[in-house]
């Protein structure tokens, strides 16, 4: 007997909300890592690098 994945029970708006929260969390984690590695970078540079990493999909 197979069970459906819990996400199969969610309506599309719930799935979108979860995906949005995951994306926001991933950005926060990446930004924290950038701040730790580049303590001398100004906020503008950190945000530019964060956006590059997410939009260009590289690490």
Question: Low-confidence parts, pLDDT < 50 over ≥5 residues?
Answer: none
Helices and strands, in order, run as: HH
Question: How many strand elements?
Answer: 0
Terminus-to-terminus distance: 41 Å
Give the overall average pLDDT: 90
Number of helices: 2
User: What's the Cα radius of gyration?
Assistant: 16 Å
Helix proportion: 55-70%
**Mass-distribution shape:** elongated
Quick synopsis:
This protein has 59 residues and is an all-alpha fold. Helices cover 66% and strands 0% of the residues.
Annotate the secondary structure layout:
Blueprint (H helix, E strand, L loop, with lengths): L11 H26 L5 H13 L4
Polypeptide structure, described:
With 59 residues, the protein is mostly helical. The chain contains 2 helices and no strands.
Attribute tags:
single chain; 59 residues; mainly alpha; 2 helices; 0% strand; elongated
């Amino acid at each position: 007997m197979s069970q459906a994945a819990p996400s199969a029970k969610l309506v599309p708006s719930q799935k979108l909300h979860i995906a949005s929260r995951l994306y926001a969390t991933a950005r926060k984690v990446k930004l924290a890592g950038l701040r730790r590695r580049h303590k001398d970078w100004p906020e503008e540079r950190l945000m530019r690098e964060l956006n590059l990493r997410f939009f260009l999909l590289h690490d």
